Amino acid sequence: xxxRLRFDDVEEGDELSARSFFLSKDQVRxxxxxxxxxxxxxxxxxxxxxxGLPGMIxxxxxxxxxxxxxxxAWAGPGTLRRLGTTFRGLVLPDRTIRLCAAxxxxxxxxxxxxxxxxxESEEAERLVIGTATVALA
Amino acid sequence: xxxALDPAIIGxxxxxxxxxxxxxxxxxAFARALGETRPEYTEAGPALVAHPTYCVRFRGGRFxxxxxxxxxxxxxxxxxGKDIQLGAPVRPGDTIExxxxxxxxYEKTGRTGSMVFVVIRYTLSNQRGEMLAIVDNRFMHR
Lengths: 137, 142
Known about the structure:
The structure holds two protein chains of two kinds.
Chain A: E1 19-23, H1 25-34, H2 40-43, H3 45-50, H4 60-75, E2 80-87, E3 95-107, E4 112-121, E5 126-135
Antiparallel strand pairs in A: 1-3, 2-5, 3-4, 4-5
Chain B: E1 13-19, H1 24-33, H2 39-42, H3 66-69, E2 77-86, E3 96-110, E4 113-125, E5 131-141
Antiparallel strand pairs in B: 1-3, 2-5, 3-4, 4-5
């Protein structure tokens, strides 16, 4: 049975350890293929420029997926109950991105926690922001 | 209500599509593309389930209802964000029924001018009638 984080081990105000990594164009293309979003804006710099973009971009769905994985790496698989996001800026691949979250509220009755989540650039610009609900053991 | 839309459009189902069945290979490829290595999401077998955001793949058979297509150029739209409420996990062999409704239409004025937001709600269920996810997708049009 996969380990789940315990509700009693979490406090409001806790910040998760941020995860920084290099997001490659190949990974974005792999997601576009697997996620049913094979389109020039997500796969090809020239095609994206023809759409008025600076180059190929990361699908918003992929940013959500990365944030979901980040939260479940902390709390355990199958713990995510809700994730809401706003796509504020373009997430350009072949750069380092950082995934971050902080606990904003504990719900005793449901043993769940609310979090602020965001994906930011190396320059700390928040490109995707949102909130999440995670159920704990 | 912007765009001189009939308010009756809100909440009305405009598409119902069944997709699938989902294969284990599709679930594994999706999870691996997100860098997942956990066996629940990446190893075929009885315990395999879909990554929680797999549900955003499903967008039904029609983008907007006819009434909206008359007023909005779909090509002018950008994905502005999503809200996902998760239910039962998607498993290999599942067929997915996607019901699409217009959840909300609203207008905002920003520094760059006026924008219209359309929120389409996709309600996903499997062949057992279990709710898999409710996905609210916000599209922004200038």
